[in-house]
Amino acid sequence: MYKRVFGIVLDSIGIGSAPDAAKYGDTGSDTLGHIGEYFKGEWSLPNLQKIGLGNIRVENSIPGVPPIENPLGYYGKMTEMSAGKDSLDGHWEMMGLPMMYELSTYPNGFPQDLLDKIGAFAGRKIIAQGPYSGTEVIKDYGEEAVRDGALIIYTSADPVMQIAAHEDVVSVEELYKICEYARSLVNEAPNIIGRIIARPFIGTKGSDFKRTANRHDFALAPTGTTDLVRLQTAGQTVIGIGKINDIFSEQGIDEGYHNESNRDGMDHVDRVMQQDFTGFAFTNLVDFDTLYGHRRDPEGMGKELMQFDQRLGQVMAAMQPDDLLLITADHGNDPGFKGSDHTREQVPVLAYSPSMQTHGSLGVRSTFADFGATVLDNFKLNVSVGTSFLQELK
């Protein structure tokens, strides 16, 4: 048994179209592959490569990340069984709670009665409200929002409602209260929304407007018991870093840390690694998704991955022999693909510990739940969903 398990989710870093990608219009999506093509193979992820990232796809290998003869760890990919391609269903499935029904999406904008209720509660005008890029919507509507003290409400192809307001006009605390109210309206059919996202912004006009780190996700509460709760109930310490707390509505989490950025998130990982605990530390690094994937920026996404890879080297050097590191993703967001939304992809899964004596393939896992099943198995807990690969790690 490993004393500590560290799980890191590289938010949106998919590794190629899922078998059912056509259902989502995502055939041909390949986040890692298209980033590699953009760099013409001239980029470097040496630590991910050492664990085995390039060995996941020997044929049609990731440009610039070829397979190596003797990886340090175990490698494979996982296929999502949930009915979606959002962070919420991806993380829930990892933790043993697949979401087998579609959440609500609003390609034509939100129902007027829903907006009227939010506007009445807030006592504020609502503008925008349709599908929009988060950076473009504040560029186009920010000045009006400041002038009129209004809320900008918009969505994407995902089951989310995003509510943006200028911090000098609508305080962060007020915006959070409005989002909490909106959350209470969309927990049952016909409107079941995965996340209400507070999007505070600052600036003076147009292109000067920028979103702040005071984002907060008000997620649908887990509809069943997650592996985080199972771990906590069994007396294991559970630590959430990044938007993990939001995604799981703080259920099953003993300590939580908000990330200002991926770098800040890795700083939290470093600090947690210095703690003496037995249990599971679960981290989400969201910048890959919000700053680069949705903006279809392969250069930025690739550079952010290289920055993470450098920090990964520090993590690997600091690990104890009884530590286990698991790295994966929650969905794709291919910067070389059409549109600006998540892509239905398989995701990599990598496992490493300094105590490993060998290496090998974990194959293609049929569900993200194998991730959480492995964590449960490590702590001698019963697995309800998924198949553990703990015994394959030697």
Automatic annotation (TrEMBL):
GO molecular function: magnesium ion binding; manganese ion binding; phosphopentomutase activity
Xref: InterPro entries: Alkaline_phosphatase_core_sf (IPR017850), DeoB (IPR010045), Metalloenzyme (IPR006124), Phosphopentomutase_DeoB_cap_sf (IPR024052)
Pathway: Carbohydrate degradation; 2-deoxy-D-ribose 1-phosphate degradation; D-glyceraldehyde 3-phosphate and acetaldehyde from 2-deoxy-alpha-D-ribose 1-phosphate: step 1/2
Catalytic reaction list: alpha-D-ribose 1-phosphate = D-ribose 5-phosphate; 2-deoxy-alpha-D-ribose 1-phosphate = 2-deoxy-D-ribose 5-phosphate
Family as reported in the entry's similarity comment: Belongs to the phosphopentomutase family.
Lipid metabolism among keywords: no
Primary location recorded for the protein, binned into one broad class: cytoplasm
Residues that, per the record, bind Mn(2+) 1: D11, D330, H331
GO cellular component: cytosol
Cofactor note (record): Binds 2 manganese ions.
Cofactor(s) required, per the database record: Mn(2+)
Organism this protein belongs to: Weissella coleopterorum
Subcellular location: Cytoplasm
EC number: 5.4.2.7
GO BP annotation list: 2-deoxyribose 1-phosphate catabolic process; 5-phosphoribose 1-diphosphate biosynthetic process; metabolic compound salvage; nucleotide metabolic process
Name the UniProt record assigns to this protein: Phosphopentomutase
CDD domains: PPM
Binding residues for Mn(2+) 2: D289, H294, H342
Pfam families hit by this protein: Metalloenzyme (PF01676)
Keywords from the named record: Cytoplasm, Isomerase, Manganese, Metal-binding
